[in-house]
Write a structure and sequence with these properties.
With 443 residues, the chain is mainly alpha-helical. The chain has one domain. Helices cover 88% and strands 0% of the residues. The chain is built from 16 helices and no strands. Helix 2 packs parallel to helix 7. The longest helix has 75 residues. The protein is globular and about 60 Å long. The two termini are 33 Å apart.
Length: 443
């Protein structure tokens, strides 16, 4: 069996893409699809109020998970580069510090968000029934987050160690277990939204323990060691992972503000329509993320080894895959908006007509979204943090908020155009960064 170094540096780029990126994308979709499937089950078996409450709470919940993701992404970049340079002991120290920091800091973030959630939901304009569903949903996830947040962390480390297929298999098994438990709780036992969160949390916890065992037993290229230089390690990890964290957190804050405006202009109906689209987005974006994230170790290994020719080829393959994926998603959303919406919620004719119109507009985002996403992911993979951070903040927060202010005066119609317009501005920014920074680095 090839070592992880031979796998990432010696495998031809096209073969590497099929062996790493495709299973990685499938695994990432599987590891995130249960959130969307969970909302589908909630909408079908619990009702529209619970569905809207879950979608109000989801952005806040994902901010807590974004802390673990930041540490995971930041440490993975450093670890891949260190392994590419042959510095295994340093890589193990980064790995050990990152696992502890991810669990502790994600838990603190989740507790703070849950404690403040009643005030936040009132501020968003939720009535008592809607806020109650959202608080229950958020609270159950918080109980399990010290363990569940590590699912995303160990998933990254499995891919760094070259165990891409094992990662994919675990993600698929986890998704099936989560869906099975949610189906039992919601359909068979006819329980409420808190049990949807319980089913997912139990499934994630089981998967996390299984993924953790090979690292504890020393069967991976990475294993736990004593850490003495916590400050320097975590400083580097935070800097490397900051673009991903800002992108994730900014996107969630944007969703919170969007929900506030939609709740004021269109009530539960508008929030539910936006929630359906965001659940669809929650399937598409992990697929995009999985392509680049699975090959991030390869980019880091080859960058650390000075093989820029391979870096260029791997990046081009990733960008091409993301472009095809995004165009296909746009076509599906434009051709079948009503059918997709009806999977999540039963609705009357008026709501369905509004949903078809809104999803058709918001679905245009994927025509150009791959441009900024590819640029940002590549910048992070090779450690160019400043430009990656600027692009992530502009894409996820600055452009959407500015467009909400400009287009919000047009009512619901204007808000539906916020996401596609922000994607266009982000793509133009990414193209500018490429010509000013990336092209020069790749020579």
């Amino acid at each position: 069996m090839k070592s992880e170094r031979e796998f990432f540096i010696g495998t031809p780029p096209f073969s590497l893409f099929w062996k790493a990126a495709v299973p990685g994308a499938v695994g990432m979709i599987a590891s995130n699809i249960y959130f969307s499937a969970e909302m589908l089950l909630v909408g079908r078996f619990v009702g529209q109020t619970a569905f809207a409450g879950g979608n109000l709470a989801m952005p806040l919940l994902l901010i807590a998970y974004a802390v673990a993701d930041m540490i995971s992404v930041g440490s993975s970049i450093d670890i891949a580069i260190k392994l590419g340079e042959g510095k295994k002991e340093e890589a193990n120290r980064i790995f050990s510090a990152a696992v502890v920091a991810a669990s502790v800091l994600s838990t603190l973030a989740a507790v703070a968000i849950t404690v403040s959630s009643p005030f936040l939901f009132r501020l968003m304009g939720a009535d008592d029934a809607l806020a109650r569903e959202a608080i229950i949903y958020l609270g159950v996830y918080t109980i399990f987050i010290p363990l569940t947040c590590l699912v995303f962390v160990f998933d990254n480390y499995l891919r760094i160690c070259g165990r891409v297929r094992f990662s994919m298999a675990m993600n698929i098994a986890m998704a099936l277990l989560c869906l099975f438990l949610e189906f039992i709780f919601l359909y068979v036992l006819d329980l409420g939204i808190g049990y949807a969160a319980l089913g997912t949390s139990l499934g994630m916890s089981v998967a996390c323990i299984i993924c953790m065992v090979p690292f504890i037993r020393g069967r991976m290229a990475l294993h736990f060691v004593r850490v003495h230089d916590w400050t320097s390690i975590l400083k580097s990890v935070f800097l490397q992972g900051l673009p991903s964290f800002l992108n994730n957190t900014s996107g969630r804050l944007t969703s919170v503000f969007m929900n506030m405006l939609l709740l004021g202009l269109g009530g539960e109906v508008a929030v539910s329509i936006y929630g359906v689209f965001m659940n669809i987005d929650g399937i598409i974006v992990p697929g995009m993320y999985g392509v680049f994230d699975s090959l991030q170790p390869a980019i880091g290994y080859n960058w650390g080894a000075g093989r820029k020719d391979r870096v260029r080829k791997i990046a081009l393959l990733c960008m091409s895959a993301l472009a095809l994926m995004c165009i296909a998603c746009t076509l599906l959303l434009e051709i079948f908006p009503g059918e997709i919406f009806s999977l999540f919620l039963e609705s009357d004719d008026d709501m369905l007509r509004l949903a078809i119109h809104a999803i058709g507009i918001m679905g245009l985002i994927y025509i150009v979204r791959w441009i900024s996403y590819s640029c940002q992911s590549f910048l992070s993979a090779i450690g160019i943090n400043r430009e990656a951070t600027i692009l992530s903040i502009c894409s996820a927060l600055v452009f959407p908020l500015l467009l909400m202010l400009l287009l919000g005066n047009s009512g619901l119609e204007g808000l539906w155009y916020v996401m596609p317009a922000a994607a266009v501005l982000s793509s133009l920014t990414a193209v500018a960064i490429y010509f000013m920074q990336i092209r020069k680095k790749l020579r």
